[in-house]
Amino acid sequence: MFSCILSVIVPDTPLNNAYHVGSLNFWSVTVMQILKEHQPPITIDEQITNLLDKGLIIEDEDYAKSFLNDVSYFRLIKAYSLGLKVKNGDYFENVHFEEIVSLYLFNAGLRQNLFAQIEKIEVNLRCRLSNYFCSVYGVFGYEDINNFSVTEDIFKSITKDINREIKRNARAPFVRNFRNNYIEGKIPFYAIVELFSFGTLSKFYKNMKNADKKAVAALFGVSYTYFESWIESVAYVRNICAHYGRLYNYKLVKTPKMYKQYDVRNNRIFAILLILKHLVPNDRHWHEFVNAIESLIIKYPNVNLQMIGFPQKWKNYLQWEEES
Asked: What are the Cα distances from residue 299, in Å, to 79, 251, 304?
């Protein structure tokens, strides 16, 4: 149970101790929050009882128990009940356990399809960025601060990130090969980039010179001001997917800069789908991805598309004009 103590102190001489706005006096208010106590663990049978007490309809308790034995109460109920119940209260009328499961399964399907597209972008960016950077600055150009548009502290941070990735992958065959068989044991950038996480890759790009960022972004047919924002957001979503996180009814923390032609919310997952449209090839694989998303929506009709930022006629947004 949440509670707090509200303490108001009124001074003896208000005009000397209060804040003044016009003829009004304001006194400081101290709010002390009493933190919640952690709940004790409960068995799956107790979880079922708790859900029934909150008004959730469970027609097949054996199925519910089996599912909760595979997917934790915290992962399933806490995340996918959002929007189906009063906060810290009971479920709305006529909400079924199977509805929550279907949202979970929809999210899993969306995440799996999305991750496959993000992988293409990550691999392409590693290739195109390293090819460009090595051709301009050499295979060890990452060691020179003059090849970046950064302060000395930021360059040290970049170097620290690179060294951390090398150390973490010290046993990788190609790392050992360069360490043991090449002069000074140094690793060329075209190899090091394969050790980068997408987040490190995004950070490396962000700290390049503007002219270099423009050149790399042009390889994707995008302005670098958009591209920088896009890959940062895509890297963020990639990590959600990699950790089997929730995309449904989730507000993105790293929001992408969107083209003005798109009247969509940039803090929902549909914005990322629009970005992918511009970054992956317009071929049959993209069409298959769009069709797979449509099939998921048909399969799970209780999905609220507004929760993932999908506009009406969303499919038209993801198709190029000649296809619409």
From this structure: 20, 24, 13
CA distance 4 to 90: 23
Q: Is the dihedral of CA 262, 265, 266, 270 positive or negative?
A: negative
Q: Is residue 160 part of a domain?
A: no
Dump pLDDT digits (tens) for 211-252: 999 999 999 999 999 999 999 999 999 999 999 999 999 999
Q: Is 156 contained in some domain?
A: no
CA distance linking residue 41 with residue 172, whole number of Å? 41
Could you list the residue range(s) of the whole structural domain that residue 24 is in?
A: 3-34
Answer yes or no: do 16 and 131 share one domain.
no
What residues does 34 pair with on adjacent strands? Answer: 3
The structure's pTM equals 0.85
3-state DSSP call for residue 4?
A: strand
**314 within a domain of the structure (yes/no):** yes
Those residues of the chain that have pLDDT short of 70 are 1-32, 321-324
Q: Which residues contact 33 (CB under 8 A, 6 or more apart)?
A: 4
